């Protein structure tokens, strides 16, 4: 005869909990995410917006996942250009302090992470800034920046800047141990090898760019600049030296280009 076992209510409750946990573990990962964070700019923007609003990351580990997501966009650009992998401008640090702001107004900071809805930073170095909307930086050195909207930077040295809409940089150049040897070093450097990595969703604009890698993922004309002549192009750089472009010449507004190269962009 079959043997019937009578389960107690606590046992049944435990079984239900285990079954739910197993189902959750087996649930498919959304297409815009991997186990290690968002895979597209919109998903990353949504994650940052939640964190900035709540004053904390939705889940433990989301901060690291957001940083690695930004790094993946930069790595894809570097790889497409045939350049060697490079270390992040900001060294990994488990004890790096994190500040959450709905609207940041930071005069000076070093060695911090900022999670913001938007804001303005006067002078930062060795920092990570992730913003759901627009962000403006006056002076930035050794930084990783993500903006869900537009990232505007006046002076950038050794940075990764990824933006959902536009990247607008006045001047970007490699960080030199000896600035007086810059011209000599430039002669032996490949385009995109020594400078910042700029990845924009729709358009990219720079006054002067040296040694950087530039990629607009889904090009479209930017907002016109006051006083600018001619139709705006998705990529506009006044003076480009040793720049690696991942967009074809027809998408760029012609300025001065010295020792620059064009490579095929990865799929957006």
Give the topology, please:
Layout (H helix, E strand, L loop, with lengths): L8 H18 L6 E2 L2 E2 L2 H14 L7 H19 L17 E4 L2 E7 L2 E4 L2 E13 L3 E13 L2 E14 L2 E8 L8 H5 L10 E4 L2 E8 L2 E4 L18 E7 L2 E2 L6 E2 L2 E3 L2 E2 L6
Labels describing this entry:
268 residues, alpha/beta, 15-stranded parallel beta sheet, two-stranded antiparallel ribbon, 4 helices, disordered N terminus
Query: Could you tell me the radius of gyration in angstroms?
Result: 22 Å
For the report, how would you describe the main beta sheet? 15 strands, parallel
Structural class category: alpha/beta
Instruction: Let me know the average pLDDT.
Output: 84
Distance between the termini: 64 Å
- Succession of helices and strands: HEEHHEEEEEEEHEEEEEEEE
- Number of DSSP helices? 4
Q: Overview of this structure, please?
A:
It is built from 4 helices and 17 strands. With 268 residues, the protein is an alpha/beta fold. The longest helix is centred in the N-terminal third of the chain and has 19 residues. The strands form 2 sheets. It has a 15-stranded parallel beta sheet that branches. The chain has a two-stranded antiparallel sheet with strand order 1-2. The N terminus is likely disordered. 21% of the residues lie in helices and 37% in strands.
How is this structure best summarized?
The chain has helices at 9-26, 41-54, 62-80, 182-186; strands at 33-34, 37-38, 98-101, 104-110, 113-116, 119-131, 135-147, 150-163, 166-173, 197-200, 203-210, 213-216, 235-241, 244-245, 252-253, 256-258, 261-262. It is an alpha/beta fold. The termini are far apart.
